[in-house]
Amino acid sequence: MANPLNRAAGPLRSREGLITRPSSSSDEIQLRIDPMHGDLDEEIGGLYRKVRQLKGVAQEIESEAKFQNDFITQLQMTLTKAQAGVKNNMRRMNKSIIQNGSNHVFHVILFALLCFFIVYFWSKISR
């Protein structure tokens, strides 16, 4: 059962019952709905349900994005406060070291030398 309009539409035919024909303007397409295949209400209803579902998904994505942005902002504020605290503590430690004088580096060097000599003498004795 070939429809003569179907052959005229050629590759522009998109669905059963829908026929497109090129018009005089290159930007326009004429659409003719074949009355035999006019059960498009179900298609429209299905598309409406899908659009509603997509709208729900988009709203969920939007709320999740807002939640994550708020969480990131809160983390940034916490990090800024922690950095300020560390900076203040470092300033106090440096001030304390300058005022009291620190022999920590000297003690670490002595400990390293002591460990080196112990390992050296132990290797000499064990031979």
TrEMBL record:
Has the keyword Transmembrane been applied to this entry? Answer: yes
How would you describe this protein's topology in the membrane?
A: Single-pass type IV membrane protein
Keywords per UniProt: Coiled coil, Endoplasmic reticulum, Golgi apparatus, Membrane, Protein transport, Transmembrane, Transmembrane helix, Transport
Tell me one GO biological process term. protein transport
Q: What does this protein do?
A: Required for vesicular transport from the ER to the Golgi complex. Functions as a SNARE associated with ER-derived vesicles.
Q: Which family does it belong to?
A: Belongs to the BET1 family.
This protein is called what? t-SNARE coiled-coil homology domain-containing protein
